[in-house]
Amino acid sequence: MMTKRIGLFGFGVVGQGYYQIAKKQKEQWVPDTIVVKDQKKRRPSDIKFSYTAKDVFDKNPDYILELISDEKEAYEYVTEALKRGITVISANKKLLSAHLPELISLQKVFGGKLLYEAAAAAGIPVITNLETHFEEDTIISLEGILNGSSNYILSRIFNNGLSFEEALRMAQQKGFAESDPSFDINGSDVSSKLNILILHAFGKFVGQEQIATFGIQHLGDVEINLAKALGLKIKLMAKADKDYRGISAQILPTFVEESNSFFGVENEYNAVKIVSEHLQEQFYLGKGAGSLPTGAAVYGDLIKARNGFSYNYSKVNFDKPLDEKLLNLGVRVLFRSKSLEQNDSVVFSPEYSIHLDGYYYTVGKVKPKNFSRLNEEGGVSIVALPDSVSAEDVDYAFREIQKSVEVV
Amino acid sequence: MMTKRIGLFGFGVVGQGYYQIAKKQKEQWVPDTIVVKDQKKRRPSDIKFSYTAKDVFDKNPDYILELISDEKEAYEYVTEALKRGITVISANKKLLSAHLPELISLQKVFGGKLLYEAAAAAGIPVITNLETHFEEDTIISLEGILNGSSNYILSRIFNNGLSFEEALRMAQQKGFAESDPSFDINGSDVSSKLNILILHAFGKFVGQEQIATFGIQHLGDVEINLAKALGLKIKLMAKADKDYRGISAQILPTFVEESNSFFGVENEYNAVKIVSEHLQEQFYLGKGAGSLPTGAAVYGDLIKARNGFSYNYSKVNFDKPLDEKLLNLGVRVLFRSKSLEQNDSVVFSPEYSIHLDGYYYTVGKVKPKNFSRLNEEGGVSIVALPDSVSAEDVDYAFREIQKSVEVV
Ligand SMILES: NC(=O)c1ccc[n+]([C@@H]2O[C@H](COP(=O)([O-])OP(=O)(O)OC[C@H]3O[C@@H](n4cnc5c(N)ncnc54)[C@H](OP(=O)(O)O)[C@@H]3O)[C@@H](O)[C@H]2O)c1
Ligand SMILES: NC(=O)c1ccc[n+]([C@@H]2O[C@H](COP(=O)([O-])OP(=O)(O)OC[C@H]3O[C@@H](n4cnc5c(N)ncnc54)[C@H](OP(=O)(O)O)[C@@H]3O)[C@@H](O)[C@H]2O)c1
Known about the structure:
Chain A has 14 helices and 15 strands. By secondary structure, chain A is of the alpha/beta class.
């Protein structure tokens, strides 16, 4: 097989993971040009680095790997490459989530290909499966744990009793967190991934602003202890459903029962559940972050591209947008707020309410369209509650945690 | 897109599942010729049937779907088709497990393609993933629940207290069982699937006679009640491992702990866990039997074939065969036998033994090479025991079940 020219942008967690794998496998997959940004950073002395994209493009590469942390510059590199008909592998969910419709057009017009498995669930080949196995199946819902870093944090909190801050520091040390970890914990990383997956599952580009998002950063001890008292865990769940009205999508910390497939998904693992008409129910679990699993996803895309694989986007149809009414459907949650006014203006169909340590906790319904505003109001926390956990269960748990406080 | 000519062999559980999906999706995927066997069977009157393979081949089909229950005749149809360079989709694990090396050669020589996702884990795209995502990753182990029918039976026994016979009858009614259900329960269906998966995972054709196999048909109430007393379940597990000595493969009823990913796999679901060097750990769950999931896997293969996808078999290397010594490694089990002689001649490193209701139950090691002989000796049952379940735990459980017997 003829050696291919490969240009690599970025030599961080993902870039180094890719490099390590390519080096160990076949020499032909080692990039001939590696572009990074910071001229002052110490680098391995046995690798030659470049600091300008020109060095990549001048060599007329067959493949470009875009593994940088920046969105704007990635946009320049990727669109330039696609316009030259080059095959690009990207791990950049921010870029993809913002620009997929344009990037799909560029592929169609100029014949370049773009693969990006690492941008969704890293080690789990969910985009590939959606594009092959599910290509002509009708998907009913897609649900997942899509951020390795926040899942790692929740595992440390629930299984090791760590505080939020301690757990976040550990996730950063292990390389699971994005360079700006606030994207991990406020749900925005998940929302970019869900936005990409929705396109492949349902053929629509909904855009992140249409995905009702609330992160784990406002979780308090009460929610955590409540979950423990009921034998539940809290997971940051992403969910997209399709029915006759359209697609609804939301990202919410969620009380998860032991019988739920996601209960046992721990640490940096991601998991995805797809319900479809023919294949019915599938569940995938794999590493969603970290140097080797992400590098391997990039490497896998490169091998697939060499074998002639590309995304067909056969479900894609951008005609009819998301129905905004879906953001008005109620989600059953445990809602925490600082004031009774806030509580009453947001929660409808309340089932239970309690006042504890200066906060109001209410079981009831909230509208996804309010999530982004509530995120900024402060004091608020929202955790989705499955129907099978009744208001009585919640009441029982509140009594339990108050008991334990009194005893200490 | 030009209409393709499709010939279908077989209109049973899988054939009808495929037909139903093709009909609902796009008319072009509905077969123009359907060959079945029994001229006296009542059939839907709105579909035309043929009774000779000639009717398919005379039409020069682009695709042939081989979905019949017979192995020998399937061999004729599939080899004939491949020699004509036709693309074939098959669900026939018996055929594939017996003849894969030859079928791979025929593809290479004549340019026809053969896809067979439905033959492994039906709804789960495990072969496709092995051929794409894992193509250049080194697989360390592959483990799975690969027979929907026996898993369904075990679920009914463990979750609904049914007897073995009642549970088997239900599996047959639901269409999960093969036409001859003994293949489901004696492990031979699983062993043909594992044989196929080993080829795609490790590149070796080990052959079913090298896969140490023991089914669920000899399971007794004692093993089942013992599992229940310990909070365990029994699952029919298939496992293949690779180390410096070679590949070892075995199929055994296995005590499974709650912390194991396979614990929650119920009913006709299949599941596969793959551990590899780069992607590390992946777990897939989906429907492994039944009309629609299996039909959808066939349909998915057809769509993939149309998109130019084929198996690369890039790991395949038939040079060095399986090391027979691996069949001599010990597996830790609970062993039941009718005589002390049999017990002592088979079990080594015994940790615990008890005599109950005319049987000897021993925790110790047995050699996989003895499984097939023990299968025929009668009275014997073998259930693999994880290291974390100690001899003391087993002793405790034996006391518990004897207590409950006395009380009744
Ligand atoms: N970490 C994960 O587990 C993970 C998982 C899935 C997807 N991703 C995605 O993969 C991408 C890379 O993530 P990462 O974790 O590897 O980030 P990282 O460790 O922060 O590394 C980023 C790399 O990009 C380089 N870079 C930044 N701007 C550049 C520019 N304009 N031109 C050339 N190089 C530039 C940096 O150069 P310097 O070395 O000079 O700083 C650095 O080498 C991101 O899009 C991220 O969202 C990450
Ligand atoms: N059932 C499952 O869930 C499942 C899952 C995965 C794979 N599979 C595999 O899929 C294949 C089909 O299984 P199935 O469950 O659909 O079997 P089935 O329900 O017993 O149906 C078998 C079909 O094959 C036809 N047939 C048998 N010999 C034939 C011959 N020589 N020429 C033409 N047609 C012939 C039969 O014809 P008549 O109608 O005239 O009897 C019948 O239509 C098997 O290889 C099986 O191992 C099954």
